[in-house]
Amino acid sequence: MQKDDGLILSASATITSDTNGTAVSYNPSNDLYGQVVVSVTACDFTTGDETYLLWLEANDGTTWRKLAGIQIPGGVTGTYRMPFSGESARKMAVAAALTQVRPVVDVSGTTPSITFSSFLTKL
């Protein structure tokens, strides 16, 4: 699996609330297939009601749209893959070409806390 330093979405960080990550210049519609690789090193599930949703959003210069997403099981560490297709990305680009992507984290529950890093790779 090829890892390009320019396609790192997030360095290892602990997230405890909903977060929009930093945008990275990348047009996912230029590739046939790609994926986000997420390495989860800690994931709280103390009270049992914590949930963790991770999204890849793409921007056409005006609007952020969800391109791919996964739910991380509470308390389960490991490597997760979030695939997407260039065809889906092309269909999303309503007004113009997609120019950026960013990770989005949606957490909920009593004590949510997840530590992970993520990057894009072409398939």
Word description of this protein:
The relative contact order is 0.40. The protein has one helix at residues 86-92; strands at residues 8-15, 19-20, 24-25, 33-43, 51-59, 64-72, 78-85, 100-108, 114-122. The strands form 2 sheets. Strands 2, 3, 5, 6 and 8 form a 5-stranded antiparallel sheet that branches. The protein has a 4-stranded antiparallel sheet with strand order 1-9-4-7. The chain has 1 helix and 9 strands. By secondary structure, it is mostly beta strands. It has a single domain, classed as Jelly Rolls.
Compute the average pLDDT.
88
CATH fold-type name: Jelly Rolls
**Largest sheet features:** 5 strands, antiparallel
Shape: elongated
Name its key features:
123 residues, mainly beta, Jelly Rolls, 5-stranded antiparallel sheet, 4-stranded antiparallel sheet, 9 strands, elongated
